[in-house]
Amino acid sequence: MRKTFLLFSSYLLAGCIIASAQKESQTTVNQFVVIANNPGPVISKDIYGHFSEHLGRCIYEGIWVGYDSKIPNTHGIRNDVLFALRELKIPNLRWPGGCFADTYHWKDGIGPQEKRASIINTHWGGVTEDNSFGTHEFMKLTELLGCDAYINGNVGSGTVREMAEWVEYLTSGSDSPMTRLRKENGREEPWKVKFFAIGNENWGCGGNMTAEYYTDVMRQFSTYLNNYGENRLYRVACGPSDYNVSWTETLMKDPASRSRFQGLSVHYYSLVDGWNNKGSATDFDERQWFQTMRANLQINEVIKGHAAIMDRYDPQKIKGIVVDEWGNWFNVEPGTNPGFLYQQNTLRDALSAAVHLNIFNHHAERVKVANLAQTVNVLQSVILTEGDKMVLTPTYHVFRMFRVHHDSRLLQSDLKCEDYVFGERKIPSLSASASVDKEGRVHISLANLNPNKPIVLACPVIGETFNKVTGEVLTADAINAYNTFEASDKVKPAAFNGHTFKNGVLTVTLPAKSIVVLELTK
Ligand code: AHR
User: Fold this and answer.
1) What is the pLDDT of residues 343-372, one digit of tens each?
2) Are strands 505-510 and 455-462 parallel, antiparallel or unpaired?
3) For ligand 1, is residue 463 a contact (CB within 6 Å)?
4) Which of 237, 306, 464, 491 is the most buried (most CB within 10 A)?
């Protein structure tokens, strides 16, 4: 009651401040009110996760170069990529797919490298997969990154026994054929595995199953995924794509089914004009920019749709939504293998990342994990490589700027802003979220989606007093600016000083097409 009253008073106060600010300026219509003294749910750091599939040059070349490579590496993992990913403090990494996961037989990827089976990667370019990157290499990668493992099991073409044995091989400390095999392969102690997915896109590449059939199969597989020792698996059931709420309903409605998983995956890719007309990643006009932003914002509706169903069966919000594939999907770069999904990454992708991450922050109560597709050289990557060269993409910089939200608590906020109008359509010009970390610092992440005009934003921060505001901005001259191996710093963050702080009201001038992250300290 007292809390509600305090909050109500805070809002009233905020309203007065905004009204007076508007009266003063006569023009300010953009406002982001932040209530700083009533922190909400924790924004799980796991929504800042990444995804690396055996697809194109993501694992091979992008991450794994092998022990004998001239490219500086640690246990076969290239150092430049490793150090860059460490800088992002990536919380979890999903592997080995994607569609590849439901063709992957983990025993092909253990033991002496020269004895490993070569297979055909049927989903992605039909290339030969020599399995030189397998379970031990992946777990070493997560150790070197200091992140949690998110392993995606094979339901589509695998067996219950195969999946159960993988979990035993990975996490059991008891004596058994699987743990003896692990030890023979050089790993004495069990690993910790936090997330384990029971198939991927089983409505499509993972077996073309109906929701009813998958639900039964998931129950069966899940029964044999044991928690060994202290390891507790967060089991992720294959969820829907986009707006397919009936898939969610089928998995959630029966208590015996929903008791078999902790998280439900949701996949959502942003497309400019549908799957048949994805457009170029670098050569686009304002219409395509607008369409991309519009598609990005729709993930909010997608999450709301699935969350509404989950709320009916799980009002305490115990089950998480796991958005383990999201991002922009454009045409591959001209001249590259269509099966490798290699695309450049521009300022547009940076704005897209900011929009998604702000939306995930707002859904902190339900969205527990999210993974950008994909880490290196595939779709909306944070890193691109070419031989021994590496470049950080604009999307990388957004993930670095947004690190401040990891495990912080969401602050209540209210955004009112002008529209960004293009032709007959409009979307909000701004995207924003705010959190408070364990040290009491408030972070506000803002994005101006309008590529044509700066926006002045009144930002009253209610309930706490702060003395200092610092910030970083990411923008560029052109909507399609991007970093290349020759010019790697075209799009990079800079210190931000487009703000004033007076009477508790923060006023921010956001450059056109920009992302700004502010830190407020006492
Ligand atoms: O990320 C590329 C592919 O997109 C994944 O393999 C699949 O799960 C999705 O359809």
Assistant:
1) 999 999 999 999 999 999 999 999 999 999
2) antiparallel
3) no
4) 237
Q: What ligand 1 atom has the least distance to the C-alpha of 269?
A: 4
- Ligand 1 pocket, 62 CB below 6 A? no
Going by CA atoms, what residue is nearest to atom 7 of ligand 1? Answer: 98
Best mutation site among 52, 59, 99, 100 for ligand 1, i.e. most ligand atoms within 8 A of its Cβ? 99
**C-alpha torsion angle, residues 374, 59, 57, 60 (rounded to 10):** 170
Handedness of CA 292, 33, 511, 395 (dihedral sign): negative
Cβ atoms 471, 517 nearer than 8 A:
yes
* Distance between CA atoms of residues 375 and 418, nearest Å: 34
Is residue 97 within 6 Å of ligand 1 at its C-beta? Answer: yes
Model confidence at 4, in pLDDT bands (50, 70, 90)?
A: very low
DSSP state of 331: P
Cα end-to-end distance, the chain, whole Å: 28
Evaluate: CB of 263 within 6 angstroms of ligand 1.
Answer: no
Model confidence pLDDT, tens digit, residues 332-346:
999 999 999 999 999
Q: Is the CB of 325 under 6 A from ligand 1?
A: yes
CA 302–ligand 1 middle distance (angstroms):
18
Work out the angle between the directed axes of helices 160-171 and 211-223 (0-180°, nearest 10): 40
- 505 confidence band (pLDDT: 50, 70, 90): confident
Taking each continuous run of H as one helix and of E as one strand, the counts in the chain are 12, 27
CA 53 – ligand 1 centroid, Å: 9
In tens, the pLDDT along 125-152 reads 999 999 999 999 999 999 999 999 999 9
